[in-house]
Write a structure and sequence with these properties.
32% of the residues lie in helices and 23% in strands. With 208 residues, it is an alpha/beta fold. It has a single domain (8-203), classed as Rossmann fold. The strands form 3 sheets. Strands 1-3-2-8-9-10-11 form a 7-stranded mixed sheet, with helices on both faces. Strands 4-5 form a two-stranded antiparallel sheet. Helix 3 (105-116) links the parallel strand 8 and strand 9. The radius of gyration is 16 Å and the shape is globular. The N and C termini lie far apart (40 Å).
Amino acid sequence: MIELSHIHRFQAGRGSHAPLLLLHGTGGDETDLLPLGEMVAPGAALLSPRGRVLENGMPRFFRRLAEGVFDEADVRLRAGELQAFVAEAREAYGLPAPVALGFSNGANIAAALMLLHPGTVSGAVLIRPMVPLREPPTADLAGVPVLVLSGAMDPIMPAGEGERLARQLETAGARVLHRTVPAGHGLTQMDAAAARDFLASLARPTAA
């Protein structure tokens, strides 16, 4: 494995899917979402970094001050570090801009990455995200495809949080599909199926 700024796993791809940037939830690591990536985008290259922040020994992508209260200065810092990692990895592995696939904390840093560093990813699947920046910068996400998957019975997310993030991204110009599935905070087969369909639509060639 090539040494880069983040501990990571990389699996080379084949076929028409864009590479996936896999971003785990709190307490996960660089191996957590590899099976999901293989399931939802068969043949895609998979780039999976480990979050560099530890909370009680559990890896995360940025600090939080309390449950649901983010350290927004750290969000901005870590999003910049992740942007630099993606640039390193693209050069090292010869990749086009990846599509982010993030769960929970990983979905939050993916959203921050798009808003703070447009162009780093070419699209995103955000599973159980929250709004990472209450006052995001003006970003140009014109036409960037995004799927937001909220859980109807999610005990962690404030009501309407997924919708608020979807509106933020739409205001920046992204093409956002927001779905609420009958689930809690955890990953489900419904999430996998929705992500697979969404990513397959991106891989399909468009008519001239």
